[in-house]
Amino acid sequence: MDRFHEKPNVFVGEVSINVTDVSRSIEFYTNVIGLRVLTQSAQQAVLTADGETALVTLEQPDGVMPKQGKTAGLYHFAILLPERKDLAVFLRHLLQTGWRFGAADHYVSEAIYVDDPDGNGIEIYWDRPSSEWKWKEGLVDMATVQLDGDGLLAESDESFTGLPAGTLMGHLHLHVSSLPETEAFYTKGLGFKVVSHYPQAIFTSIGGYHHHIALNTWNGTGVKPQPHNAVGMNWFTLLFPSEEMREEAITRLNELGAAVDQFVVEDPSGNRIRLLV
């Protein structure tokens, strides 16, 4: 049972991304990824796995621009499946679609990576039991090694009927312009803890998870935010367990000089966050 995406933790709930053609994206996210449409309008679609909870919102802004290189913003959002067999079913489905993908074993998890038609990065993964994760001096042991694809496929021969109802938004990985400044925002401001280091990247979490939010400067330091009408991330939500904890976070963010307006704040790299309870 996943305990890292429920009270008393703070975690990512939903991600909103810009796309160039919402109809094409709906087709991809339903047929290839296996999400379902919750609500839809001419330029927007809200997607779900369980028929109730919004996980991904697709937006086609006026004057939409293609994905811009060398900016801050989305590296990938990561959809967490309940069990290993769910990832096996998804992998077989992906092989049948012929859609290009990457794969990796991260010790704490097994993951499959795809880009949507606009180049937005998506990870689909499952977590190994947290009892198997290895920690040393407050840091979790993660790596990127080859996925045992055959072993994974042997886990299940079920047909793919979409992502299971227990699917969650597992974590988010962002391009940022400055690691020290952004680390202070997420740790001192929002209360996350650094649990892993990687070249030009840090991984942060709350409650002993391997990471809820990862931050990197792989697009370069000092990069600008993406234009608001460009392909990429619009915003993401952080879910707080109580009004009190949200207010405490807002106070800390204000002390860091981050302006919170109607429970919306931007990190130092311009990534927009909706602070929800």
From TrEMBL:
PANTHER family: CATECHOL-2,3-DIOXYGENASE. Residues 11-127, 168-277 form the VOC domain. The lineage of its organism: Bacteria, Bacillati, Bacillota, Bacilli, Bacillales. This is Catechol 2,3-dioxygenase. It comes from the Bacteria. GO terms for molecular function: dioxygenase activity. Keywords: Dioxygenase, Oxidoreductase.
